[in-house]
Every structure is written in structure tokens, then in C-alpha cells.
Design brief:
This protein folds into 2 domains: about 260 residues, Conserved hypothetical protein from pyrococcus furiosus pfu- 392566-001, ParB domain; about 120 residues, Conserved hypothetical protein from pyrococcus furiosus pfu- 392566-001, domain 2 (2-Layer Sandwich), CATH 3.30.1760. About 30% of the residues lie in helices and about 30% in strands. It is built from 13 helices and 19 strands. Helix 4 crosses helix 7. It is globular and about 60 Å long.
Length: about 400
């Protein structure tokens, strides 16, 4: 299998004299709700959410044109500056769900695009059409990679190449207390070592499947012409357990008809038994029980998959096992995606969803095996934590 090129690029960064960009960076678009977007907008007229999740302004421009015009204005004002071609070491320091201090270290660069299975980039999840259409429109209009895809490389030693000296060029601490740090790498020897390491093996897409497919669609629209659109902004991390924390993305259920017996419907596919309180201890108890967890306003129940459900599931994953049950639900039943146990419980308690189902996370080994096998998990199976911030560095794809 051909492997992708990984090249330095002329990054576009916020022109922060002290390097602190707390007020202007944002999470990636797909984890921001309206409440958080409003908070980010209030922080700064230059917050990246204004271009990542733009809104129409009533002057006849589309929201995509608003994002394009804002980005160009920020460049013109000097709020954004462009570097010479470089790689960027990006470290995220955080505490995992057990409270243990962790660090994820990777490289931001321009990863050569290819269709799945043709050029050494291996997706592991299926995507949904709606999100792709929105992201393609914003890429067409802004001509900027606003946030990176996240790739996993089996190349040993890539983490060691992230050990660069000196103070970071850019830094921020997000609302969850994650420390984000960025170093620019231009030394020819180190640049060559990074390019060679990443290009030595296929890359598995960990996060950003929509952006990856949109990048390929935009590339195809150029009719085979050569240009910066042949690559995509990518955050490449060594495929190693110590570098990664994978959490589950849970399910919210709506559209169930009056009188529908949810427990009875699930009992056809799972052994159902009391789970006690759905609190911060439930993920560990789910692992011990070998079960998913149903959350309703009446309580919580463990769902241990039956042998038939395990056999029918496409993959050895809770998302696939739940899909077996959901396939038999009545027409009109809707599934939404939500990360975080607390968020699921609050949504059910507030009546924003009729029920929630908590899933156990996929392992790094499962992600690697499925990606290398050319298969795809159900959409929104994995939630890599923490998330790189949009706005640490941007990449232009304009000719």
C-alpha cells in the first residue's frame, strides 16, 4: 500500500505577542452546542468559533461567506499572521477519567490526501451526509483547513521527535483544564526525520472523518490540478496506548411512540438488570458487568448483550451491538450522539431525550485492527480526548 506524504506548511496563527491564545481558540465544531458557542463568541471578536461555526448576519451573505470575510479581515488587520513552512509540535496535558496526569504529543503537518484504501490513509468510522455537506461548503468558501484531522501512526519513535526544547510559541488552557502547547519546527534535519517517520506506514484516521472525506471531495473538484488542496491539515500521533485516551460517544433516543415498552424491546437483545444510580462510577461498573447502560427518568439498567446479539453485531463494539437492537425499533425512532455520562443524564432528566444509552469505549487495539482491515465502525463510536483546539494554527488551501 502506498503511504502518504507528510510535509511542513505555511501555518496561519493568531498574532499574540505573549503567545497566549486562550480567548480565541475553540473546540472543534462537532462538540460545540449553541450555549458554548455563545460563550466563545463573547470571549473575543476574533474567537475561532466565528469561522468554524459561522452564522448569517442578515446582510444577504451566507454563513460561509461570513466566515470567509472574517478570516480575510483578520489577516488584513494583522490579527492573523502567516509563518514560513514548518511542522508544529502540539502537546496536550490533561488528567484522564481516573485523575491520572497524561500527555498527548503529536505533529501538525500537511498530509497527502487519497481515497480510503488507495494511499495509506485508513478511516475507521462511517460518516453522515449532513455534516459532510456543511463542512464542504465552508471549505469551498473559506479555502482554509480550520481544524485538523487526527491521524494515528504506527511509526515507533514519532513521540520522541515531539520532544523539542524551549518555550512554546503558542499556549492556551481550555475550560476543562487541558494545557495546549505549540512549538514550530523548521530545522531541516528534524523536518526530514518527521516526514520520513510519518511516511513510513499507513495512517489511521482517529478523529475528523467528515473533514477527511470533505478534503477528498474538494480535491476532486479541482479536476486533477496540483495545489495545496491535495493535502489536509493533520495532527499525527504515534499509535501507542500511553499517547491516547479513547472515550465512548453515547446515544440519546427520541421519537418513541406512546406506550412503547423500551425495556421490553431491549430485553429481546440484552439481559436487563438494575444498574443503580447513573453517576461517575457507572463507566467502571459497566466494564465489570460487561454491559451497556440504559438511562431513563425511572432509573438505570445494565444491558448485557445476548449471545445472539453478539453474533449479529458487525463488530465487537457496543455501538454495533446497540445497532442490532435499534434496527427493530419502530419507524420514527431517532438516535442522537452525546459524549459524557453527565451530559446524557442531564438530557434525559430535562426531557431533552426520552432515554439515553451509555456505551463502553473502543480500545486503541480495536481501532487499529478495524482500520487496517479496511472496515468501518458505526458513526460516532469513538471520542478521542482531549480535542485539539481550533485556532492553534490554520492552513490555507487557496491557490
Amino acid at each position: 500500500m502506498r503511504v502518504p506524504r507528510f510535509d511542513p506548511f505555511p501555518g496561519i496563527r493568531y498574532n499574540a505577542e505573549d503567545g497566549y491564545v486562550d480567548a480565541v481558540v475553540a473546540p472543534p465544531y462537532d462538540v460545540i452546542d449553541e450555549e458554548e458557542r455563545a460563550r466563545l463568541v463573547e470571549r473575543s471578536p476574533y474567537n475561532a468559533v466565528r469561522v468554524e461555526l459561522p452564522r448569517e448576519e442578515g446582510d444577504g451573505r451566507t454563513k460561509y461567506e461570513v466566515a470567509r470575510d472574517l478570516f480575510r479581515a483578520w489577516l488584513g488587520e494583522g490579527a492573523l499572521v502567516q509563518d514560513e513552512p514548518a511542522f508544529y509540535v502540539y502537546r496536550m496535558g490533561f488528567h484522564d477519567e481516573t485523575g491520572r496526569p497524561r500527555q498527548t504529543a503529536g505533529i501538525l503537518g500537511a498530509l497527502e490526501l487519497s481515497q480510503p484504501g488507495e494511499g495509506g490513509i485508513l478511516p475507521h468510522e462511517r460518516t453522515t451526509p449532513k455534516d459532510k455537506a456543511d463542512r464542504l461548503d465552508i471549505l469551498r468558501t473559506t479555502q482554509v483547513n480550520l481544524s485538523p484531522i487526527w491521524g494515528l501512526s504506527p511509526a515507533e519513535g514519532l513521540s520522541a521527535l515531539c520532544d523539542v526544547p524551549g518555550a512554546p510559541l503558542v499556549r492556551a488552557t481550555d475550560d476543562e483544564g487541558v494545557h495546549h502547547r505549540l512549538w514550530k519546527v523548521t530545522q531541516p534535519g528534524v523536518v526530514e526525520a518527521i516526514s520520513s517517520a510519518v511516511a513510513s506506514a499507513p495512517i489511521i484516521v482517529a478523529d475528523g472523518h467528515h473533514r477527511f472525506e470533505v478534503g477528498n471531495a474538494y480535491k476532486d473538484e479541482q479536476g486533477g490540478a496540483s495545489g495545496p488542496w491535495n493535502s489536509i491539515l493533520a495532527y499525527v500521533v504515534e499509535l501507542a496506548e500511553e499517547q491516547l485516551e479513547v472515550r465512548a460517544i453515547h446515544r440519546l433516543l427520541d421519537g418513541l411512540p406512546d406506550g412503547f415498552d423500551l425495556l421490553d424491546a431491549l430485553a429481546a437483545h440484552f439481559d436487563v438488570f438494575d444498574a443503580g444510580k447513573a453517576d461517575e462510577t457507572v463507566p467502571a461498573r459497566m466494564q465489570d458487568a460487561g454491559a451497556l447502560t440504559l438511562v431513563t427518568t425511572d432509573g438505570a439498567w445494565f444491558l448485557r448483550p445476548s449471545a445472539a446479539t453478539m453474533e449479529a453485531a458487525e463488530h465487537d463494539l457496543d455501538s454495533s451491538r446497540l445497532d442490532v437492537a435499534l434496527a427493530a425499533f419502530p419507524d420514527g425512532a431517532r438516535v442522537r450522539f452525546q459524549h459524557g455520562v453527565d451530559n446524557v443524564v442531564r438530557a434525559v432528566d430535562r426531557g431533552d431525550a426520552q432515554a439515553g444509552v451509555l456505551l463502553r469505549p473502543a480500545t486503541v487495539g480495536q481501532i487499529a485492527a478495524i482500520g487496517h482491515g479496511g472496515e468501518r465502525m458505526p458513526p460516532k463510536t469513538t471520542f478521542f480526548n482531549p480535542k485539539p483546539r481550533t485556532g492553534m494554527v490554520f492552513r490555507s488551501v487557496a491557490p
